User: Fold this.
Amino acid sequence: MPSVVVVGLQWGDEGKGKVTDYLASEAGLVVRYQGGNNAGHTVVVGDQEFKLHLVPSGILYPGKLCVLGNGVVINPGVLLKELAGLKERGVDVSGIRISDRAHVIMPYHPCLDQLDEASREVGKIGTTGRGIGPAYVDKYARYDAIRICDLIDPDIFKERITEIVRIKNMVIEKIYGKKGFDVAAIIDEYSRYAEEIRPMVTDTSVLVDRAIRNGEKVLFEGAQGTLLDIDHGTYPFVSSSSPSAGGACTGAGVGPTRIDKVVGIIKAYSTRVGEGPFPTELPEEQVSLLRDGRGREYGVTTGRPRRCGWFDGVIAEYSVRVNGVSDLAVMKLDVLDQIETLKICTGYRYRNSILKEFPASLKVLAECRPVYEEYSGWLKDTTGCREWSDLPQQAQDYLKRISELAGAPISMVSVGWKRDETITIQPIW
Ligand code: IMP
Assistant:
């Protein structure tokens, strides 16, 4: 039985929530392996819309085991609030399990994230301000991190947090000139969280391994996207985790031999939130073509308008390569329904040459100009299409070119927000 990684191939917001939800119906277990509540996944079930930040999208199937793996950074207050909100709407959240090795976002992490961004005159990243970067910095620096297993051990937690807050307050007070944190208040608040999450905490790597050995279908749900990956993204304008497929192994505690398929989620055009390079970005006066109407291109977490642009074949090829994508799911095709002329970027003009491979240097990227192919739009509503053959010829041609440039076959096409507004070309499971 296959284990499948769902990974974003652009800058996040590709529609991973919908695909995960779609595939989760058959999965025995759904695992998130990186990131934290910087993510925002929209899932539409019937006439209800759910916006999930930390909880895996599989939660919308009653009793489904949903794991937050060791690679996730967890803000327990946010998690408990999200679970309470879901419960209030009648969702069964009993299947949630939290890795004892996951790291905890403490109150000073969002504080430092925001102070750091605000203090920079140049080079702002445009983070979500949720403390993701500072939490991963503490994880890798090792001195000041709290893992879930430390949080739920009252003695260890008190001892560690007392020293950590002393150090953090030195930075907050002496460098930023702001008021520091009261350690007693943090101990009080987080000890309450610890008691609430304790029943959900376990060694989740064992759960994942057991599910795979039992022949269950396991779905690894990536957040953000490849171009926000700390190694493979448009560094430094990236997040601090490893959304790419390799991150599923380290972030869930499974070996690469256990992964059978990698489903790359890619929008039929491009979007990005926050700062950083975006070669095919549309100028502000044209952006509403994609942002408004059916596109609804506004951040789920921060509400920020997303930057929008044409499909970028250079990025598609790059992301398919670094993730080893076996299947593509092309999302939001319907957003293009009423556009007369569509463009696909097939290469970058850089000085006297045409680049086909995505460059590492932001200086080079800044000089790159997209080389476009133009396609006539189909000017027909595709939301009712359920088979490949239902799609207008122009839409089929557009999708074929995407697949050719990316170097991977298309298994799914999404033509709307709802679960059934999906064309399955090749079943993933
Ligand atoms: P951070 O993850 O909050 O540190 O933000 C770093 C960069 O990643 C910023 O440009 C954010 O806008 C972007 N980012 C983080 N999470 C998401 C997401 O889920 N979707 C899209 N962009 C994201």
The domain at 3-92+203-424 is CATH 3.40.440.10 (Adenylosuccinate Synthetase; Chain A, domain 1).
